[in-house]
UniProtKB/TrEMBL annotation:
Its cofactor is Mg(2+). Pfam families: DNA_pol_B_palm, DNA_pol_B_thumb, DNA_pol_lambd_f, HHH_8. It comes from Amphibalanus amphitrite (Striped barnacle). It is found in: Cytoplasm; Nucleus. It comes from the Eukaryota. This is DNA polymerase. Residues 40-59, 81-100 form the Helix-hairpin-helix DNA-binding motif class domain. GO terms for molecular function: class I DNA-(apurinic or apyrimidinic site) endonuclease activity; DNA binding; DNA-directed DNA polymerase activity; metal ion binding. The gene is POLB.
Amino acid sequence: MCADSSSTPSTFSSDSKFSSTSRKAASVLSHHPERITSGEQARQLAGIGRKIADKIDEFLQTGHLRKLDKIRASDVAVATAELSRVSGIGPAKARQLIDGGVRTLEELRARPELLNRHQTLGLRYVTEFESRIPRQEAAAIERHVLHRVAELDGRYRATVCGSYRRGAESSGDVDLLITHPDYTSDGAETGRRRTVDGAETGRGRSAAGSATARGSGRSAGGRLLGAVVDHLSQDGFVTDTLSQGDSKFMGVCRLPGAQYTTHRRLDIRLVPHDQYHCAVLYFTGSDEFNRQMRAHALEQGFTLNEYGLRPLGTTGVAGEPVPVGSEREVFEYLQYPYRPPEQRNL
DNA sequence: GTGACGAGCGCATCTCA
DNA sequence: TGAGATGCGCC
DNA sequence: GTCAC
């Protein structure tokens, strides 16, 4: 994992228990319906222990936290936060840069040789990526993309998910899900696509990349996704690629027309046809809505994830995925009152 | 006091045999 | 050169 | 760090 988080007492170590525990505590607190007036009160909540409760009391009494002040004052933390604005730079790369004497974006621009492709683009577009996408522009992107995909092959199905689908007035990026009847999870004919369910696989790394990289050819998924990306690049809409494999493209786009001056983050995922509705549900979110719906699924004896809805046997082992013909059907199977995307902002 | 736990996956890139 | 490890982004 | 044991 993190090379040596022990040697240098880092303020942010991404994988420490501290971060996830704090995240859990923060999540619990932020979802608590009532105002917290004492550490003792917060202590009653799941995930809040003595230390966090003490900090709540300190903040309530003094209006700030000594430890937080210290962290904010630390140069390394400031530099890490600054460098992490760049997409593709995380805690490890930031530390490496700081160790090499680079602490600001200005200094980073002077050392382009230190960055890989993703990071180079992240630096180029750092300000543009930080600006929100107004709903009107996201809608224009949606129209453009759906039109272009349809003219490429009318059998594609595509949906813009994320906060845009939930009706948000602005979005951070555009998340497009696409599917095609020729691409299914059983991988018949298309060649090697294991039936993914994400439940019992650990951190399984497959050799997905090698099939694409080799000259011989792309998988069915690679071709279907590649065709869409190529088509969207033809007219200049897709301007850059951060990464692209057989099933996921991450890149940059900008609509034609003088009124659109800002480059936007665009993700395109190719999803197996039989998993499409569960994927759309999942990628529409919100995070909290997904958690609640999954919890409800468990109570109903199902397991729900982006790959499908599966019944749980008496032993707790997941069975075969239930065929799902629409997002609404997932709700119905679970006897969960249907909520349109605009009402999933939890 | 001790051990389990924290999401998990796709892609790019590094590391090492 | 290829398998595995690591870093990163992301509901 | 927090929780269940």
